[in-house]
C-alpha cells in the first residue's frame, strides 16, 4: 500500500515539474522579473508595497517588450488594469521568477506571449541587405537618432559611425 502511495506521489511531482514554465516559454517576464528583483535591497524585498513603488519607478525606464510587460502588470500610469500585487507579494516571499510568471500567466496569458525579437549580429551582417525598418530598430535600441536620414544609405552611414561605440555589446 505504501509503495503505491509513493509511486502516485512521485508521478504527481513529476507531472508538476514538467508543467513548470521554461525561460523560453515566458522569456520577457522571467528576465524582467529577475532583473527587477536584482535591483531591490533587502529592506524593500520584505514589503510588497515598497516593491510595487519600486516596480513603477523601474517601469518608467523600460522600453520595447519590457515596457509592454509593465503595461500588462499595471506598472505604468497608462495601464488599463493592475495585477501588480501578483508580482509584489510573491517577490516579498522570495518566490523565484519562473514561479511568479507562472502565476501571472494564469491571470493574463498575454504576459507569456511577449517574446524578444531576434538580435542582429552587427559584426556578421551586411547592413545593405537589411530593411530600413531594421536599421531604424538598431538605432532605436541604441537610443540614437538619425536626423536628416532620408535614404537607406544615410541610415547605414549613421550605424557605421556609431558601431564602435556599441560594438562591444555584441560580443
UniProtKB/TrEMBL annotation:
UniProt signal peptide: 1-20
Organism listed in the record: Ceratitis capitata
Family indicated by similarity: Belongs to the ARMET family.
Localisation per UniProt entry: Secreted
Top-level taxon: Eukaryota
One GO location term (cellular component): endoplasmic reticulum
PROSITE patterns: EF_HAND_1, EF_HAND_2
GN (gene name): ARMET
Key word Kinase present: no
Gene Ontology biological process terms, A to Z: dopaminergic neuron differentiation; neuron projection development
Physiological role: Required during the maturation of the embryonic nervous system for maintenance of neuronal and cuticular connectivity. Essential for maintenance of dopaminergic neurons and dopamine levels.
Database matches in PANTHER family: ARMET-LIKE PROTEIN, MESENCEPHALIC ASTROCYTE-DERIVED NEUROTROPHIC FACTOR HOMOLOG
InterPro entries per UniProt: ARMET-like, ARMET_C, ARMET_N, EF_Hand_1_Ca_BS, EF_hand_dom, SAP_dom_sf
Main location per the UniProt record: secreted
Record key words, sorted: Developmental protein, Disulfide bond, Secreted, Signal
Protein name: Mesencephalic astrocyte-derived neurotrophic factor homolog
MF-aspect GO terms: calcium ion binding
Start and end residues of each EF-hand domain: 130-165
